[in-house]
Every structure is written in C-alpha cells, then in structure tokens.
Design goal:
Layout lengths: L2 E5 L3 H13 L3 E5 L2 H10 L6 E5 L7 H10 L6 E5 L4 H9 L4 E4 L4 H27 L22 E4 L2 E4 L4 E4 L2 E4 L2 H12 L4 E3 H8 L9 H14 L9 E4 L3 E4 L2
Parallel strand pairs: 1-2, 1-3, 3-4, 4-5
Antiparallel strand pairs: 6-7, 7-8, 8-9, 10-12, 11-12
Length: about 250
C-alpha cells in the first residue's frame, strides 16, 4: 500500500482522485494549496510515496512546489496534472523537477498507470540503494562495477572521468559528492550516452526523450543541457563531454 498526497484545489476532481486511489488500495491525503503541501512535505517532513500535483493552485503554483521539493533534496515522485498542456508547459514541469506530466482532461486508467509507473520506479530505486548498502564489506562500501558499454540502460552503472552514473538510483557520484538526478535529466543523459560519439538532434530529444512534437520551443533543452554540464563537466563553460553542435543539437563524448 502506498501513501499518495493529492495537491489539487478543484474539490470535485480532488475527491474523485482520492476515491479512485483508495479503491486501488492506496492511502490518499488531500491538500488544496501549495503552501499547505510545502508545510507538510518540507517542514513537517511527512512521508509520501508519490505526489499528484496540480499546477494552477492558489498562491504558490505547482511548478514552485516541485522546484522547492527538489531544492530541498526531497525526491518523492511527482506527477503533475494540469489544464496547461502546451508543450512549453510540459517542459517547464520537467525543468521544475516533475517526473511525469498529464494534461487535463485525462483518462482515469492512464492516470493510474502513470502513477503506478512512478511508484514502481521509486521501489526499484529503494531496492538498489538497499542492495548497495548490503554490499558493504568490513565497514567499506564495495565500489560499483561500471559497465564499459555505451548503451546505458536501467540497472547499469556507467563511469567516466572520475564520475559514476547509476541509472537505477538516478544518482551521479563524484568523489564524496552525490547528485540526485530527476527522471527527465536521467532520460536525457541516457539518450545522449546511448548515442555517444554521434550528433543527437533537438528533434530527437523532443520526440524520443520527452514525446513532444518537433515544433516545440527548444530553449528548455538548452536549460537541461546547462544543468547536465554543471553535474558532469570540470569546467561547464568549456565542456569536454556534452558538446554543442551548432544548428543541429548535441553530442556526448568521452
């Protein structure tokens, strides 16, 4: 059984979501505004297995809530629900740290399937962390085995330039520092790694990574690339690994 926080100010919809979540065996709590949700999640540190988050809330909007959670290193899975379904809004949701995005109106079964996918991913990540902890020998954690294959997939650990990417836990480790990637950051990075040495077009990123149409404003891609460079590069202003191919897209190199 999972505990879900529904942050939605439209009472009829909120109650309907909670009813259906409970019918699926989950426990559902309801917040009608962003301030209350942030108090419960960040100040009172209530535990939830996932958050269903509306964007157009009174006061603090959903994008701000998602961003605040990630800045506070709270990586509870977040599914955004909103009537703002433009591709630019979807990308803004991903940039704020959301894990998935569903535009209103939506089919209930699609909603439940998307949420269940996030819960499974969270459970897999927790299992990977426990497995890593159980591998500790003599008080020292065994080093992860990094695969040499460029085709990084779920369950693989990929290492380069003193950094280790774990696509199971969505973690980038460099020495003593660990960066928790959002699901969308990890998906973009995985796409680049799978195509290492080849130019990846903006069209490919939009369609193959985020399922958006080609004519979407691509400035959000640039923002994601800037973030990835901060994580990966010794000098983000002079990148060695995530390169821009002017007028086309990007290329990942060793």
């Amino acid at each position: 059984m999972s505990r879900i926080l529904v942050i939605e100010d439209e009472k009829h919809l909120a109650e309907g979501l909670c009813f259906n979540l409970e019918a699926e065996g989950h426990t559902a709590d309801l917040c009608g505004d962003g301030e209350t949700a942030m108090r419960r999640l960040l100040k009172e540190h209530e535990h939830f297995d996932a958050v269903v988050l509306d964007v157009m809330l009174p006061g603090i909007d959903g994008f701000e809530v998602a961003s605040a959670l990630r800045k506070a290193k709270n990586f509870v899975p977040v599914l955004i629900l909103t009537a703002r379904g433009r591709p630019e809004d979807v990308l803004e949701g991903f940039a704020s740290g959301a894990d998935d995005y569903l535009a209103k109106p939506f089919d209930l079964q699609i909603f439940l399937a998307r949420l269940q996918g996030l819960l499974r991913r969270s459970a897999w990540s927790a299992g990977a962390v426990k497995a890593t902890a159980s591998a500790t020998v003599g008080g020292k954690q065994a080093a992860p085995t990094a695969r040499s294959s460029m085709a990084a997939t779920a369950g693989e650990v990929y290492a380069f330039n003193g950094k280790t990417l774990d696509f199971d836990t969505l973690e980038l480790r460099s020495g003593e520092e660990t960066v928790q990637l959002t699901l969308m950051e990890a998906k973009l990075l995985r796409h680049l790694i799978r195509n290492a040495g080849r130019v990846v077009s903006r069209k490919s990123i939009l369609e193959d990574v985020w399922d958006l149409r080609e004519d979407t404003d691509t400035r959000a891609i640039d923002n994601f690339i800037v973030r990835l460079r901060r994580y990966l590069e010794d000098d983000p202003a002079k990148p060695r690994h995530v390169l821009t191919v002017r007028g086309v897209g990007y290329k990942f190199v060793m």
